[in-house]
Design brief:
about 270 residues; alpha/beta; Spore Coat Polysaccharide Biosynthesis Protein SpsA, Chain A; two-stranded antiparallel sheet; 9 helices; about 35% helix; globular; binds 1-O-phosphono-alpha-D-glucopyranose
């Protein structure tokens, strides 16, 4: 059973500057709702019971958003505005499920995951990267179903333009399970176009085993001087751990760039 989800949020969001100079990108509204809420809703709808947000001192604003300040509680009670009070009820519900851990030096996704080592309880957990929104279908829910059947790690996959492989983690396939799922032979972080094993890219949804923490403890810096989760996953695959790539059915929206962020608002407003 997958009960816990972790969400790394300590990144600086430089691709969205200057918006992110004073604000956390995950709190930017997309069609009237913060981006992070879409991710939290995906978790809850997939049956997740505890959500671990990895933030930093610079991003305390995220903690504040879920703080549900007493001052506002009073005002909201007086206002009797149905929309606002139902939004606040949601925040109170989220707050009860959320735990915070800190990654004060953003040294990469692998390093962020390692910070949750002492609070991840079960053998497997879910990780979601908040820049990657997947709409119209709950990707985490579908991945949990596959995990329950096969009892192994699962990661989301999407075919990308060959020219852009150096922006993603890229899979090498071992064998197909069915139309939407395959066993992974290897995964490489941001390969260049000539050495990329395919154009199947890693998208930010992972079901990982607790064993990843051991690999991360010894993980050296990789591409761009960061500690990548992909490199630790690679080691587990080498040890014989099974990993499944899941070609998800929903629509992918990249909220980490200005162009993608603007497009996401437009796409979501159409639903
Ligand atoms: C991260 C992962 C990469 C993955 C991507 C999906 O990269 O390291 O493997 O393909 O997310 O969005 P980042 O976006 O942090 O550069």
């Amino acid at each position: 059973m997958i009960r816990q989800a972790i969400i790394p949020l300590a990144g600086l969001g430089t691709r969205l500057l200057p918006l992110t100079s004073v604000y956390a990108k995950e709190l930017l509204p997309i069609n009237g709702k913060i981006g992070l809420e879409y991710i939290i809703e995906e978790c809850i709808d997939a049956g997740i019971k505890e959500i671990i947000l990895i933030i930093s001192k610079k991003k305390e604003i995220i903690r504040k958003y879920f703080h549900n300040d007493k001052f506002y509680q009073k005002i909201i009670k007086k206002k009797k505005d149905l929309r606002i009070s139902s939004e606040y009820k949601k925040i109170i519900k989220y707050k009860k499920m959320i735990k915070f851990v800190y990654q004060n030096n953003p040294r990469g996704t692998g390093d962020a995951v390692l910070k949750t080592k002492n609070i991840v309880k079960d053998n497997f957990f879910l990780m979601l990267l908040p820049d990657d929104l997947i709409i119209k279908r709950n990707c985490s829910k579908d991945m949990i179903l596959i995990h329950n059947k096969k009892k192994c790690s699962v990661m989301a996959s999407m075919k990308v333009n060959k020219k852009t492989v150096n922006r993603w983690g890229i899979y090498s396939k071992k064998s197909d399970i069915n139309k939407n799922n395959f066993y992974i032979n290897d995964v490489v972080e941001k390969p260049d176009i000539n050495s990329a094993p395919s154009n199947n890219a890693v998208i930010g949804r992972y079901i990982l085993s607790k064993k990843i923490f051991k690999k991360l403890q010894n993980q050296k810096k990789g591409k761009g001087g960061e500690i990548h989760i992909t490199d630790a996953i690679r080691k587990l695959i080498n040890d014989g751990d099974k990993f499944i790539g899941h070609s998800f059915k929903g629509k992918y929206l990249d909220c980490g760039t200005m162009d993608g962020y603007i497009k996401s608002s437009m796409e979501i407003s159409k639903i």
